[in-house]
Each structure stands twice: as structure tokens, then as C-alpha cells.
Design goal:
four-stranded antiparallel sheet; 3 helices; alpha+beta; 200 residues; 43% strand; 16% helix
Amino acid sequence: MDLFSDNQIINLLPYDGTVFYYGTVIPQAEANHYFNQLYNTIEWRNDESIIFGKHFITSRKVAWYGTEEYSYSYSNTTKKALPWTKELITLKALAEQTTKASYNSCLLNLYHNGSEGMSWHSDGEKMLQKDGSIASFTFGAERKFAFKHKQTKDTTSIVLQNGSLLEMKNNTQTNWLHRLPPARLIKRPRINLTFRTIVA
């Protein structure tokens, strides 16, 4: 059976976007290995944002890697991409093989426990390929991931498993918000990789 055939993948969104969940594309032991490598070798930094002139520093940590020194700006802050690590090159290739898209950058998030999350937002920055694919790996703790339509307010959600891959593409970012809601009972950390395409 071809796990990644069109017949096996169902769009999680009912309309106005495309989100495919490929499930656990990496076996658990290997996923745990990637978690440890990423946790210990990525140049993690506390995320920063400037909102209404106020400077905020989050507990969640982030990192930005890419094929070139791409600048990535959001929340009124800018990051310069670091060169790929060995693990990121391997995971990028797996994402490209699975989604049939290509990526030149990756934004990584480290959530230390379930009290850390991400509020409603869409990845619509101008430097990103419009309607392009964003491939999201999960390593570590399983967490709920939710979507909300910008106009109708309809919602849907899924639990992202260790070693799993989710893809957002087409007009998803235009029409839907997404978030990682807090889950205070979860004590384990989660690492999330989002492979993206920056356009000049």
C-alpha cells in the first residue's frame, strides 16, 4: 500500500484551503533521535516581538535556517538565516519527497512544555511564496493544532504526533488562522520544524 497516495490523504479543511496530515512519516525511535539532536545542536534563541511599541520576549525558543542568509521579519523583528545542519538537510529532503514541493528555509520552534503555545495567526509574510507549501514536522510531545476560518469562524483541529508531518498550502494562509493552544497537563517539550520557501 502506498501510504502517500492521493487516496490516503484527506484535506483537513472543509473549504478555502488545503491541509494534508501525512501521519508519522518517521518511526518513533528515529523521531526521538531527531528530537535529541535538534534540542542539543540548534542555535535556539528566545523569540522576540514588538507590539504597539512594547518589546516582548517569549519563553518559547526559535531558530531560523536557510539555503542563504534570508531575512525573515514578523512581529516587527527580523532574523537572519543560519546555514543548514546535517539533520535539517535530511529532514528537508524527506519533506520535499513527501509533499512534492521544494523549500529553502526552516523556522524552528521549541516549546518547553504545554504551558507554551502560539496564538491565532497566519503565515502570510510578504517574503514567503504566496500560496506556497509549508511542511511542518513535530518531534517530542503530542500537541493539538487548531484552525479557524477568518470569515466564518469555523474551527477544526488535529493532534500532531511525534515524527509526524503536516502540510499547509494553496489559499490556506489567506483564509485560515492556526494556533497551538496551551495544554498545561503536558510536561514534555515539543520541537516543531516548518519548512518554507522564501522568494526574492
